[in-house]
Amino acid sequence: MTETPFTPSDEQTPPRRLFIKTYGCQMNVYDSERMADVLRPLGYATTDTAEDADFVILNTCHIREKAAEKVYSELGRLRELKDARARNSTTATGTSRTSMIIAVAGCVAQAEGEEIMRRQPAVDIVVGPQAYHQLPELLTRMARARGERIGADFAPVDKFDALTFEKIGARSVNGPTAFLTVQEGCDKFCSFCVVPYTRGAEWSRPVAAVLAEARQLADKGVREITLLGQNVNAYDGEEADGKPSTLARLAHALAEIPGLSRIRYTTSHPNDMSDDLIAAHGELEALMPWLHLPVQSGSDRILRAMNRKHGRQKYFDLIDRVRAARPDIALSGDFIVGFPGETDADFEQTMDLVRRVGYASAFSFMYSPRPGTPAASLGSQVPAAVARERLHALQALLWAQQTAFNAAMAGHTMDVLFEKTGRNGAQAIGRSPWLQSVHVEDADHLIGRIVTVEIEHGRQNSLKGRLLHDGATPFKQRDQLIGA
Ligand code: SAH
Ligand code: SF4
Ligand code: F3S
Questions:
Q1: Predicted confidence (pLDDT) per residue in 378-410, tens digit
Q2: Which domains does the chain have, with CATH numbers?
Q3: CA 402, CA 424: separation in Å to the nearest integer?
Q4: Nearest bound ligand to the CA of residue 370
Q5: Strands 462-466, 450-458: parallel, antiparallel or unpaired by DSSP?
Q6: Which atom from ligand 2 is nearest to the alpha carbon of 189?
Q7: Structure pTM?
Q8: Which has the closest alpha carbon to 62: 121, 113, 138?
């Protein structure tokens, strides 16, 4: 970069403050952290509210209509804030912030950047998910002209190259857990989904780059890493010899890094659940006994219409094999109800699949037609009231399973990684191997450590534990907890 970065006009109120609001999936959470890293060398420190910020970035999600619409309403609110500031600046109060830069990043920016610029003139910058490393340069250009839309091309390799330690310094860490994006994009083209259009084709970071970032994180006290990708188990990043790796091989290499005790990955597609990855669950202590494996529907007919490219039996077989490799593994999933053409009988197949599998947690959504996707133009849309009723029934079943799973932990011991202090200060909140939130009193001195905890009881959304334990047995088996 040859030009001097843009300088806000109110130089009397340094440091510059950055507020990033993140919508959508964990990949956006990772991207938001990296945007903060890219902007830190320009003097931007992060803050918790837009009211306090010179620069506001909305990192957006396009997956469902509601997610995209939230962005426009938030932009309306920001515009008022920006206008009020411009008015105040003419009265020159001296200390208050007098300007605000607004950027829209992420998947809505990618999908409808021009519309954002048209609908909301207060927006200064639109930047897609593969181009945010260019934010410093965009700020410079913005000083000259508003209204550029940057980032319509997909070249994650440039982005990750620009985000290396050598170029921007160490990435910031936020406690003992961290996300690490290893794979981007999707080639699956499920008929309902915008991701292949917003994030582009599947691409994996080279093994060496992933290991370097992981070592950096471990050096800063990170004990648990969650590997991210839209199809993370399709990971095929280049090894040192130029040959493609696999997620299982990557997990084995990561497990060798001193200090890194826990590895997770998300999100996986059933068709990429390879033999070596299943085996890794039995071989690697560090690979946590937790698998998020979305199936979307339990009906073969609907799975075909969704272009998921597998049927329900294949899913059952996979679950059996994963459980054989790691008996205490807990399952999580994503479901869509009300996909075009879904009948009561199709929906019953989904309920049946959920009963048979038994989930420790899951996300479920009403189908939302997305512009440009094949399913949006199907004639047989399900009435909203019917879809809502199905969603309620499915969620009641999933919540009952989750509550039963958590309740069954009572009286057992487990390792908990303490992440942060709880409400009263002395309480600490950590994560179980099964991603449950665990609350323990008088444990605030243990933040950042993995400690054995005895579970007193489990509720729908969390477990309560204590440090002292006396003869409790480790939770090892699924114990016929759920389903039935
Ligand atoms: N790559 C992951 C999913 C990423 S999107 C996978 O294949 O499973 C996260 C979830 O959002 C999806 O699993 C799906 O359940 C939901 N989703 C995606 N598009 C949707 C739509 N148009 N309407 C409702 N839910 C949707
Ligand atoms: Fe979307 Fe399907 Fe790709 Fe998942 S696999 S991101 S649901 S297209
Ligand atoms: Fe949303 Fe984009 Fe993630 S559409 S779910 S933020 S990949």
A1: 989 999 999 999 999 999 999 999 999 999 999
A2: 17-153 (3.40.50.12160), 160-407 (3.80.30.20), 413-481 (2.40.50.140)
A3: 26
A4: 1
A5: antiparallel
A6: 8
A7: 0.91
A8: 113
